[in-house]
Amino acid sequence: MGEEKRRAQREPTNYTALYCSGNGVRSVKIKDLSKSGAAIVFKNEIEAREGDSIILYFYGNETGTLISHLMCRVVRLFSDEGHFAMGVTFDHDRGISKIMEYLESHSGQ
């Protein structure tokens, strides 16, 4: 039995974020999120490679405010239902607790 690669449980979300890299800024859907990383889905394919450094800016859909931003590293490129997607790992934990608290407090409809 292989050990699970992910360090933390991923939670599905319906949130969006701004993806910022040397290739520009894009709005992305956060497919799932954990304390150590996320899977994000793009409307259109972009130029990206494993190992790229990016920044994700997380906004609160309900409040319309910036919750936090995180430095990330691209660890996987894949297709999600025909859309370009990537897995990212967070370079550090600063900011993620704020995002997780926000998601938990707004998850009950």
Verbal overview:
By secondary structure, this protein is mostly beta strands. The protein is 10% helix and 51% strand. It is built from 1 helix and 6 strands. The protein has a 6-stranded antiparallel barrel with strand order 1-2-3-6-5-4. A hairpin with a 3-residue loop joins β2 and β3 (37-41). The chain is globular, with a radius of gyration of 13 Å. 20% of the residues are buried. The model has no long low-confidence stretch (mean pLDDT 86).
In a nutshell, what does this entry contain?
It is built from one helix and six strands.
Topology pattern, helix = H, strand = E: EEEEEEH
Distance N terminus to C terminus?
38 Å
Which blocks of ≥5 consecutive residues have pLDDT under 50? none
Percent of residues in helices: 10-25%
The main sheet orders its strands as: 1-2-3-6-5-4
DSSP strand count: 6
Q: Which structural class is indicated by helix and strand composition?
A: mainly beta
Radius of gyration: 13 Å
Largest sheet: 6 strands, antiparallel, barrel
Which whole number gives the mean pLDDT? 86
| % residues in beta strands | over 45%
CA-based shape: globular
* Number of alpha- plus pi-helical segments: 1
Structural features:
109 residues; mainly beta; 6-stranded antiparallel β-barrel; globular
